[in-house]
Design goal:
Length: 752
């Protein structure tokens, strides 16, 4: 059958027909898309009839006709240009019009290409023609994507990124920790000189009183180096933040300006060797001596020291968390400023500091152990926003309940937890950018000697490895940006829910970041193992994010407790009766029986439907909430102590916290996507959201199958659509990683 036997209207569809029959793409939804395109085309009824005959899945065209289509394509002498906005559409138009180029895409062909998600990697192996390869499409603008992610902070972020081009931030492999620490210290001081250290403080102390902007600066620092990020965070966020949030005006006036300019270096001494996440149980004491009007800081035992304290080797002062004892009564944990070195850098009497030594990563941060032996500090050094000692030597507090006082105090520091999640995610962004750019250059294997080896980015396995986490990264970016704004503008009655969100997201996102960085390392093979290519450096630095600012497994359980009580009790409360009292009256309200209407529905429209995604994610959270509450109550009815009841449901609580995190992330991403005015950009972001949601459902397919929410066929269809979405996003991967806005010098490596 010769090409001349068909009209031009038929010929333009032949490449599409060959592709869909060769790759068996014809599902009911694909057929409807093809039919809609044909029906809206201005072609003859005879041509429409023939085309509709060829897209009948129950009546496949004869093999000789399909082979003749391939012969026509192969003998056309045409070139497939992958950089065309719609490669198959433009190829088919040239095919039908004797190789005449046009700048206007045929709307019917374009409709099919977009809605079937047909990409060059789906079909270029089917054609024996010349292919003009491209690393990716240029349909979307990375700059516009970056602007969307920066939001209201664009001007500040752009200015900051320009500063990161200074040679002081050039990547160096420094194996000696002392040299590395000194290099990082100089970088921190440089940033302080530029005004970035004081950013979250008030104007009178050199800042702009803008926590969200500070968080964005912190996030972007991770593109340079993890050690710099953490050193910066300890100095200005933890140490400075403790003075700002736990102290009062006298502390602000005395210390904040010097902290912001790095003239007063400090550390945040909360964690102890024996007590880890249990801040309430720290053993360090702060005893008020009325006769001297001083507070005496003491480490009672050798293993009660402050442990893993960042900035310990460079600090002059520490914010020390200790049991405050006034008039013989323990008033609970409070924060006290303690000078640990004099202006010459010598340790103060009674202070002992030891280096933690080399670590897996972050070796530019000077972590140390601190002991105190009856160190006296003035009464005024008590950070007294939530608890004070008056001139008569009596303890006073605006919050009478000691439990509420303690958790209110810790709640003021939750911004640091959000910043840790943001910087961990930045580590994943940087690793993804390097791995994707490498995959768009690296070629290997091909069955035909005549054709150039394939880009590894075109392997379906590689797409799953990198594009799934790429979509997740976009989703997580938006939820964290929303959360830091909520935190900055929150009222007291909103703090508990924000603390729960921060705990859940910090856990989920830092776990995700570590898994993603490892996947990127493997995706780059041996090149990914070389420190010069930066991924090992990122991997070592981000690893600790899962256990600092709260161990993830502990935090995710605490988040689950907040969910179980609908945020009605104190976050982090170890008084389990607070939780159980609420459950006792409300657990029945948590049972919402869902009989999914679409258990067996597998068409593309349904699987991509936002309402299906929202309901599936919400259903899992609701069921886990109810079943966890029911299990706890059953244990209690058997006389098992409340604490043990919670221990027996630990793994259940972890699943609940994780489910809540994913549902929250997806919903916030949808809210963000709805604000995008550019319809084409919104289409791209919705596709990222669909990949996130379907990946989550697929990851927990066993759970959904156990609960009868989806059928086996639906589970298979979801898995197939996850792979399909990855391939549809494949042409845009370079644009998407460039959309993170990472300064080029930060991702410049031998393999990029």
């Amino acid at each position: 059958m010769k090409k001349t036997e068909y009209t031009a209207a038929i010929i333009k569809y032949i490449p599409f027909l060959y592709v869909i029959w060769s790759d068996e793409l014809l599902s009911p939804s694909e057929i409807s898309i093809f039919k809609k395109a044909i029906s809206s085309d201005t072609i003859s009824e005879d041509d429409k009839s023939l085309l509709e005959k060829w897209i009948d899945p129950n009546n496949e065209p004869p093999s000789d006709i399909i082979r003749s289509w391939k012969t026509m394509i192969d003998e056309s002498g045409l070139k497939l240009v992958e950089s065309d906005p719609y490669p198959l559409t433009y190829f088919s138009m040239r095919f039908a019009n004797n190789n005449q180029d046009t700048n206007i895409a045929d709307e019917s062909l374009k409709y099919i290409e977009i809605n079937l998600g047909i990409q060059p990697n789906h079909y270029h192996h089917l054609f024996d023609i010349k292919i003009e390869a491209a690393s990716g499409a240029t349909f979307y603008s990375a700059e516009k994507i970056d602007d969307l992610l920066k939001g209201d902070h664009a001007a500040d972020i752009d200015t900051f990124r320009n500063i990161l081009n200074d040679p002081i931030f050039d990547f160096k492999i420094i194996r000696d920790k002392e040299k590395f620490r000194n290099n990082v210290l100089e970088q921190v001081k440089y940033l302080a000189e530029k005004g970035y250290g004081a950013m979250a403080y008030g104007k009178e102390y050199g800042g702009i009183d803008d926590m969200p902007t500070y968080a964005n600066i912190f996030e972007n620092l991770m593109f340079v180096d993890g050690s710099l990020t953490i050193k910066f965070g300890v100095q200005f966020g933890l140490f400075g933040g403790s003075v700002q949030n736990l102290g009062t005006k006298k502390h602000h006036d005395k210390y904040l300006k010097d902290i912001g300019t790095a003239d007063l270096l400090g550390c945040f001494a909360m964690t102890e060797t024996r007590h880890g996440s249990n801040v309430r149980g720290v053993k360090t004491t702060a005893t008020y001596i009325k006769e001297k009007d001083v507070i005496v800081i003491d480490t009672p035992g050798e293993n009660d020291n402050k442990e893993y304290i960042g900035n310990a080797l460079h600090s002059e002062m520490a914010t020390v968390f200790a049991q405050l004892i006034v008039n013989g009564k323990n008033e609970g944990v409070h924060a006290i400023l303690v000078r640990v070195r004099d202006t010459n850098g010598n340790l103060e009497p009674g202070v002992r500091i030891e280096d933690n030594g080399y670590k897996l990563g972050l070796n530019g941060v000077d972590n140390g152990k601190i002991w105190f032996s009856n160190v006296e500090v003035p009464r005024e050094n008590l950070l007294n926003k939530y608890g004070d000692i008056d001139n008569d030597g009596n303890y006073t507090s605006p919050i009478e309940n000691p439990n509420k006082r303690f958790f209110t105090m810790l709640g003021t520091l939750v911004g640091g937890r959000i910043c840790v999640a943001k910087s961990g995610l930045s580590g994943a962004k940087k690793a993804l950018a390097i791995a994707v750019k490498y995959a768009l250059q690296r070629r290997q294997f091909n069955s035909s000697e005549k054709i150039q080896e394939d880009l590894i980015m075109d392997y379906p396995t590689h797409q799953l490895r990198l594009i799934k986490p790429l979509a997740k990264t976009y989703v997580y970016h938006t939820v964290l940006e929303k959360l830091i704004k909520e935190y900055a503008n929150s009222k007291d009655n909103e703090r508990r829910e924000i603390e729960t969100k921060a705990a859940a997201l910090k856990s989920s996102i830092t776990w995700f970041a570590n898994n993603t960085i490892q996947e990127c390392r493997e995706a780059c093979g041996g090149k990914g193992y070389l420190i010069e290519n930066k991924i090992p450096h990122i991997k070592g630095d981000v690893d600790i994010f899962t256990t600092f600012e709260g161990d993830n497994t502990v935090l995710i359980q605490l988040a689950a407790k907040g969910i179980l009580t609908n945020f009605k009790t104190e976050f982090n409360s170890d008084n389990f009766m607070d939780v159980l009292k609420y459950l006792g009256t409300n657990v029945s309200d948590k049972l919402i029986t869902i009989n999914p209407i679409f258990t067996n529905k597998t068409d593309k429209e349904h699987l991509y439907d936002i309402e299906f995604h929202k309901e599936a994610l919400a259903y899992r959270t609701r069921r886990l909430t109810f079943s966890a509450a029911s299990r706890i109550q059953k244990y209690l009815k058997k006389g098992i102590p409340s604490y043990q009841a919670f221990l027996k449901t630990q793994t259940h609580l972890v699943a609940l916290g994780s489910s809540y995190s994913e549902e929250l992330s997806y919903n916030e991403f949808l809210n963000f996507t709805d604000t995008i005015k550019d319809e084409e950009m919104k289409f791209l972001f919705r596709k990222l959201g669909s990949l996130f949601a379907l990946s989550e459902i697929n990851e927990h397919a066993a759970w959904y199958l156990e609960h009868g929410y989806i059928s086996a066929n639906k589970s298979k269809a979801i898995r197939k659509q996850v792979e399909r979405l990855c391939s549809e996003l494949r042409p845009h991967v370079n644009t998407l990683v460039d959309g993170f806005g990472i300064p080029k010098n930060c991702i410049a490596t031998p393999i990029t």
